[in-house]
């Protein structure tokens, strides 16, 4: 099986190189057989990587510990779903998963593109093949998951217990779906430049292929945050660690891109800008891998360092230089069809949105890379941490939240003062009412007040959009209010699904803002003693200790009371994996979660006479972060829902809009 | 053309304020990141200043005082050793030989008072080296 896997990856590498050449020749000469041959090449690559992935999955299922990678990441006692998820718990398997996902995207793209074969599709296949060739090459020559040991260990190393959690099993594939997926719009953008087919075709062809990875990357990060919150046990879900930042950066530029493509689609503007954004996004995806694997920045996430760092850096540099040159060379083809007419217009809203996302990306990049840059320039390493990021990202986030409410209601070209008053007077009042309400409730934190006020404002704009649309529909069609709401949404999935996604973002912000009111306390308790935090009284009752197959499970029993009412018992614990050679310990936090706040208990250690060292956090509004993620997911499902009758190719209202765009040009 | 100039001016103001935000964000939040030996070499320059220090926990040097929740240990790097005191939770990965990153100040008594302590186990995600198992099996 291992030989089959190695062979399949090697073949995929060869076929990808072949596809790169035929795709490029097909694009250049437009010879039909070359174009078709490149399509078949991508399909074959997918088949080969499917075989390789199934082979590795099989080796994990049967636990063939002669294969080094399996021995390093699995063990006899690892239960079923995780024994397969161990596939992507290390670098070699992650790279294979990455290559496989890329080829799967390529496979689907070739099927869709068959209906409009041409230079554009052929070049895009060549570029996808080039990226696949890079990954399969790295796997074949540097990081082969199928490498064998010259002996068969009795048992494997096992999966790190910290990784045995549902969020951690899905988090990496979600991130990869995101990272890798941006290769598709990138490939199409470059193909558009190469083939000089500069109409908005490439953007429409890839709209869903942009939204989907964007969504996966975002959800992947939320899952990572959830995992950090419930498993790592430090009380938070985001720490501005370089590894987190490296996933955030392409998401930020990707968010800018999914917004600004709309302006290109509808108005034919910002063409160069969009190219820059997609190049940047794709480069940052690869750069993120480089950052986490090369060891150039120090991170608490101790990923395995590897030789492949320079290779990835080279690949990023090549991507940026080649696509930058191409963009420069073809800049004449990217003339805007329109100009900015007014500062108060949808276009300006998008532009400001883009600047903010790019500014945020720059701030994160600067903060993450500063230790390296300062060391190179001045010889001493200077670092920044959470306070730096919070100081910058909070104001940027607030501006973005405001734009979330304002932008979608601005008219294209120019918005009149009258329309501003009509659209915004009620939401502004709602926002102000929220601020006044919070002030009387005793909330004095300025940025929290602004944030909550904006959240209320944006929510009001979204609700009023749905309401206005439904009322209009009801009076014209005679449907009931709810039916009108439904048809309205599904006739304009992009617009109203987009509003739902925005509402999810509002809920995320509510959750983020909650951190302004976090509280924590450390306590050393003897059995029977209590500690108070906010309205909670926690009484330590005693400890239990159990030994199961893999770990010694130590639990502190803590009774929780709020306002004199008993809420239940929390059991924060420590697991000691006594069978592992390093005697690894893992914190088992106990969380009492409500919509209002989380009570979060950590057992730090034990003393003599049954003393327990506890750390208790009160984290207000955290639940809304996860709820926001669900709402965003729902919104994305609406946006991406296939259209009836058209086979779901993202054709919805776009043609009409583009038509209108063309008229403007004439 | 006037419209374009206005647009550019507007963009300029926004970009400038973003740049200002980043630059001002650096003040009070940036700290030197040094290894233990670099800390020794620059003793004068960083005296009393908040710094980050990276090193390895000297095996057998960890003393935990459960009463005060204080941890004392020594960190080493490049042939230099520094005594450290830290109060608070230590992460699960903190143990002999672990790589630690400390943030805090060095006192006049030469003891480094860490306010934060990050530890990473070099083998955290990769398990024990298979060579070791091999040797265990052979012995």
Describe the fold and architecture:
The complex is a heterodimer of chains A (666) and B (139). Chain A is an alpha+beta fold. Chain A folds into 4 domains: 1-159, Up-down Bundle (Four Helix Bundle (Hemerythrin (Met), subunit A)), CATH 1.20.120; 185-390, no CATH class; 393-516 and 625-665, no CATH class; 517-623, Tick-borne Encephalitis virus Glycoprotein, domain 1 (Sandwich), CATH 2.60.98. Chain A is 63% helix and 11% strand. Chain A has helices at residues 2-29, 32-62, 68-73, 80-85, 91-113, 119-141, 166-181, 183-195, 201-205, 207-232, 242-267, 271-294, 309-329, 346-378, 386-406, 417-440, 446-477, 481-491, 493-514, 623-640, 654-665; strands at residues 381-383, 519-525, 530-533, 536-547, 552-562, 565-570, 573-576, 585-588, 590-593, 597-606, 612-620. Chain B has helices spanning 2-26, 36-41, 43-46, 130-138, and strands at residues 31-35, 51-57, 63-65, 70-77, 80-87, 99-106, 112-120. Chain B has 2 domains: 1-30; 31-120, Nucleic acid-binding proteins (OB fold (Dihydrolipoamide Acetyltransferase, E2P)), CATH 2.40.50. A 5-stranded mixed β-barrel of chain B has the order 2-4-5-7-6. In chain B, strand 4 and strand 5 (80-87) form a beta hairpin. Chains A and B meet through helix 3, helix 14, strand 1, helix 15 and strand 8 of A and helix 1, strand 1 and helix 4 of B. Chain A: Residues 646-666 are annotated as: Disordered. Chain A: It is found in: Cell inner membrane. Chain A: GO terms for molecular function: heme binding; heme transmembrane transporter activity. Chain A: This is Cytochrome C biogenesis protein.
Structure in a nutshell:
The complex is a heterodimer of chains A (666) and B (139). Chain A has 666 residues and is of the alpha+beta class.
Ordered list of secondary-structure elements with their pairings:
The complex is a heterodimer of chains A (666) and B (139).
Chain A: H1 2-29, H2 32-62, H3 68-73, H4 80-85, H5 91-113, H6 119-141, H7 166-181, H8 183-195, H9 201-205, H10 207-232, H11 242-267, H12 271-294, H13 309-329, H14 346-378, E1 381-383, H15 386-406, H16 417-440, H17 446-477, H18 481-491, H19 493-514, E2 519-525, E3 530-533, E4 536-547, E5 552-562, E6 565-570, E7 573-576, E8 585-588, E9 590-593, E10 597-606, E11 612-620, H20 623-640, H21 654-665
Antiparallel strand pairs in A: 2-11, 3-4, 4-5, 5-6, 5-7, 7-8, 9-10, 10-11
Helix pairs in contact in A: 1-2, 1-6, 2-5, 2-6, 5-6, 5-7, 6-8, 7-10, 8-12, 10-11, 10-20, 11-12, 11-14, 12-13, 14-15, 15-17, 16-17, 17-18, 17-19, 18-19, 19-20
Chain B: H1 2-26, E1 31-35, H2 36-41, H3 43-46, E2 51-57, E3 63-65, E4 70-77, E5 80-87, E6 99-106, E7 112-120, H4 130-138
């Amino acid at each position: 099986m291992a030989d089959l896997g190695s062979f399949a990856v090697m073949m995929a590498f060869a076929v990808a190189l072949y596809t790169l050449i035929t795709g490029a020749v097909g694009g250049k000469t437009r010879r039909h057989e070359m174009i078709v041959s490149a399509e078949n090449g991508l399909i074959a690559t997918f088949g080969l990587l499917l075989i390789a992935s199934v082979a590795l999955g099989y080796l994990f299922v049967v636990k063939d510990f002669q294969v080094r990678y399996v021995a390093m990441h699995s063990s006899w006692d690892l239960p079923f779903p995780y024994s397969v998820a161990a596939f992507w718990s290390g670098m070699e398997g992650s790279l294979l998963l990455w290559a496989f996902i890329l080829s799967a995207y390529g496979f689907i793209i070739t099927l869709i593109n068959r209906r409009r074969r041409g230079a554009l599709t052929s070049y895009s296949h060549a570029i996808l093949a080039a990226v696949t060739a890079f990954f399969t090459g790295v796997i074949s020559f540097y990081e082969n998951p199928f490498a064998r040991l010259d002996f068969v260990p009795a048992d494997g190393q096992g999966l790190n217990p910290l990784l045995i959690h549902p969020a951690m099993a899905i988090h990496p594939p979600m991130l990869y779906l995101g990272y890798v997926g941006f290769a598709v719009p990138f490939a199409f953008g470059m193909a558009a430049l190469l083939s000089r087919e500069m109409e908005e075709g490439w953007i429409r062809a890839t709209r869903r292929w942009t939204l989907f990875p964007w969504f996966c990357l975002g959800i992947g990060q939320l899952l990572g945050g959830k995992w950090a919150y419930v498993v790592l046990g430090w009380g938070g879900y985001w720490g501005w660690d370089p590894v987190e930042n490296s996933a955030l950066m392409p998401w930020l530029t990707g968010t800018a891109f999914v917004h600004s493509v709309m302006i290109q689609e509808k108005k034919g503007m910002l063409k160069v800008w969009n190219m820059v954004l997609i190049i940047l996004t794709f480069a940052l995806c690869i750069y993120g891998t480089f950052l986490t694997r090369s060891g150039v920045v120090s991170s608490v996430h101790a990923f395995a360092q590897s030789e492949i760092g320079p290779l990835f850096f080279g690949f990023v540099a090549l991507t940026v230089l080649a696509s930058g040159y191409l963009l420069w060379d073809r800049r004449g083809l990217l003339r805007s069809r329109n100009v900015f007419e007014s500062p108060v217009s949808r276009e300006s809203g998008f532009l400001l949105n883009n600047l903010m996302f790019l500014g945020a990306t720059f701030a994160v990049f600067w903060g993450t890379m500063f230790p390296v840059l300062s060391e190179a320039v001045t010889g001493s390493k200077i670092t920044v941490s959470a306070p730096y990021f919070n100081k910058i990202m909070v104001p940027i986030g607030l501006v973005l939240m405001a734009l979330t409410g304002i932008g979608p209601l601005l008219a294209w070209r120019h918005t009149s003062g009258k329309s501003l008053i009509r659209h915004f007077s009620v939401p502004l009042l709602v926002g102000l009412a929220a601020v006044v309400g919070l002030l009387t409730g005793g909330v004095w934190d300025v940025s929290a007040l602004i944030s909550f006020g904006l959240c209320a404002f944006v929510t009001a704009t979204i609700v009023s959009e749905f309401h206005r649309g439904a009322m209009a529909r009801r009076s014209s069609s005679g449907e009931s209010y709810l039916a009108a709401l439904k048809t309205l949404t599904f006739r304009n999935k992009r617009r109203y699904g987009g509003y739902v996604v925005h509402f999810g973002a509002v809920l995320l912000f509510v959750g983020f803002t909650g951190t302004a009111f976090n509280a924590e306390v450390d306590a050393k308790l003897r059995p029977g003693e209590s500690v108070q935090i906010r309205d909670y009284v926690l009484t330590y009752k005693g400890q239990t200790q159990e030994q199961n197959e893999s770990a010694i499970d130590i639990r502190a029993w803590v009774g929780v009371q709020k306002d004199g009412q008993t809420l239940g018992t929390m059991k924060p614990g420590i697991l000691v994996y006594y069978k592992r050679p390093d005697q690894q310990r893992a914190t088992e936090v106990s969380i009492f979660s409500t919509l209002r706040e989380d009570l979060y208990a950590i057992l730090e250690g034990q003393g003599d006479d049954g003393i327990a060292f506890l750390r208790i956090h009160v984290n207000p509004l955290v639940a809304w972060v996860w709820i926001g993620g669900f709402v965003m997911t729902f919104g994305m499902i609406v946006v991406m829902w296939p259209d009836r009758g058209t086979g779901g190719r993202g054709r919805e209202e776009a043609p009409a809009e583009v038509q209108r765009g063309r008229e403007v040009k004439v | 053309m006037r419209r374009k100039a206005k647009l550019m001016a507007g963009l300029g103001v926004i970009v400038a304020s973003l740049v200002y935000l980043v630059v001002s964000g650096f003040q009070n939040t940036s700290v030197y990141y040094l290894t233990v030996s670099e800390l020794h070499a620059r003793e004068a320059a960083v005296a009393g200043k908040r710094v980050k220090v990276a090193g390895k926990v000297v095996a057998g040097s960890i003393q935990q005082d459960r009463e005060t929740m204080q941890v004392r240990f020594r960190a080493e790097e490049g042939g230099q050793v520094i005594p450290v005191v830290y109060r608070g939770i230590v992460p699960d990965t903190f143990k002999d030989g672990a790589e630690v990153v400390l943030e805090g100040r060095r006192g006049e008594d030469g003891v480094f008072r860490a306010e934060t302590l990050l530890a990473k186990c070099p083998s955290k995600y990769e398990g024990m080296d298979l060579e070791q198992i091999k040797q265990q099996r052979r012995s």
